[in-house]
Design goal:
With about 400 residues, the protein is of the alpha/beta class. The chain has 2 domains: about 170 residues, Rossmann fold, CATH 3.40.50.1950; about 210 residues, Rossmann fold (3-Layer(aba) Sandwich). Helices cover about 35% and strands about 25% of the residues. It has 14 helices and 21 strands. Strands 12-11-8-13-16-17-19-20 form an 8-stranded mixed beta sheet, sandwiched between helices. It has a 5-stranded parallel beta sheet with strand order 2-1-3-4-5, with helices on both faces.
């Protein structure tokens, strides 16, 4: 994915600098050449020797180095780079960038650059929420910088909140998304994912076992081929795909509204396991269990059929509409009937019965059903299923 790409990696001074060692490894594994630059503060957290050993390239730290600067080496670094990654992007580095300061190697490179910049902020929650940081962030985004993270969680200082640097794998995905220039470039694809939660009362809800992993992997595979992805997800446990336009929903009604609001797309993949029914009138208070009394009666009503609604549009229908069918018996027969009934172009059916643990598990086996019949794919990871489907989508939209 990143073979032949030159990444200029600027490492700021923060505790999150230790994560950069893994990021360097991942970038190298993906084929990128990493040229590291460290601030003086960064050297207090990780050693230049460790960084250099993993990157396979000398670390630049000083602006005034006679050997390196004999031919204005700091300018050459930015000219040779395809992308500048700042991780961790500390509050200090972001402030320097926003103000155009250049008083060390890192800040001079950043102001002298003529290449795009990806920032991975990391700082204390109070620093992240400070008005000055917010102003600087707005300026940097306005200048064209792409920002990944920060995440919410426990911090080294003992506080909790937003400010943790994004994990290396997420930063890698952001870098890969930046270079995505595949056959789906210029195409817009909608992907729904995860379960829906239909409330019974403030405590209980109707749901299913979907983890959202298959939908998330499909979104990533489409992004890798250059597509613009609108990702509508229920309350799934799977990590959200970086680079997609992510819309979080909870209920089927909310998902239907989000799909309608997504506007025109070239293709739509409905991988979400939407609950078929919802309680007609959810209780505003917790339903109490009383010994000796009758069980509460729940009146169920059907949820909107999102797949059928989009498939049967008379105006603005996507060129390609794809559904999923989770079955426990007569998989091909039931899924084939579903494709005809819904009006979609393709159905990916899978057997979720028995002990296969497809829902919630890492692997899947699907039967690809189209107007040409049924094609059974072998057992593979959900990532491989997603990549195979993305290739078929690419060919269909070509």
């Amino acid at each position: 994915m990143l073979t032949g790409k030159n990444i200029l990696l600027i490492i700021g001074g923060g505790i999150a600098a230790y994560k950069v060692l893994e990021l360097i490894r991942l970038l190298g594994k993906s084929g990128a050449k990493v040229v590291p630059v460290m601030t003086r503060a960064a050297e207090e957290f990780v050693t230049p020797l460790s960084v250099s050993a993993l990157a396979g390239h000398p670390v630049r730290t000083a602006l005034f180095n006679l050997e390196d600067e004999a031919e204005m080496g700091h300018i050459q670094l930015t000219r040779e780079a395809d992308l500048v990654v700042v991780a961790p992007a500390t509050a200090d580095l972001m402030a320097k960038m926003a103000l155009g300061l250049a008083n060390d190697m890192a800040s001079t490179l950043l102001i002298a650059r003529n290449k795009p910049v990806l920032l991975a902020p990391a700082m204390n929650v109070a620093m992240w929420e400070n008005a000055a940081t917010k102003r600087n962030l707005k300026t940097l985004i306005g200048d064209g910088c792409v920002v990944v993270g920060p995440d919410e969680g426990d911090m080294a200082c003992g506080e909790f909140g937003f400010g943790r640097m994004a994990e290396p794998a997420v930063i890698l995905a952001a870098v890969e998304a930046h270079f995505a220039d595949g056959p789906l470039k210029g195409k817009r694809v909608l992907v729904t994912s995860g379960p829906t939660h239909e409330p019974i009362d403030p405590v209980r809800y109707i749901a299913n076992r979907s983890s959202g992993l298959q939908g998330a992997e499909i979104a990533r595979a489409l992004l890798a081929l250059g597509a613009e992805v609108v990702f509508v997800t229920g309350p799934a446990v799977a990590e959200r795909p970086f680079g997609a336009d992510i819309i979080e929903v909870e209920t089927a009604l909310q998902m239907a509204a989000a799909v309608a609001a997504a506007g025109q797309v070239d293709a739509a993949v409905f991988a979400a396991a939407v609950a078929d029914w919802r309680v007609a009138s959810a209780s505003e208070r917790k339903l109490k269990k009383s010994v000796g009394k009758a069980l509460p009666e729940l009146e169920l009503v059907e949820n909107p059929d999102i797949l059928a609604t989009v498939s049967q549009r008379t105006k603005g229908r996507p060129a390609l509409v794809i559904g999923f069918a989770a079955e426990t018996d007569d998989v091909v027969k039931n899924a084939t009937a579903k494709r005809t009934r819904k009006g979609c172009d393709w159905i990916l059916a899978n057997d979720v019965g028995g002990d296969r643990a497809v829902m919630g598990g890492p692997d899947n086996q699907v039967v690809f059903i189209s107007e040409n019949g049924a094609d059974t794919w072998p057992w593979m990871s959900k990532k491989q299923v997603a990549e195979a489907l993305a290739q078929k989508i690419s060919a269909a939209l070509a």
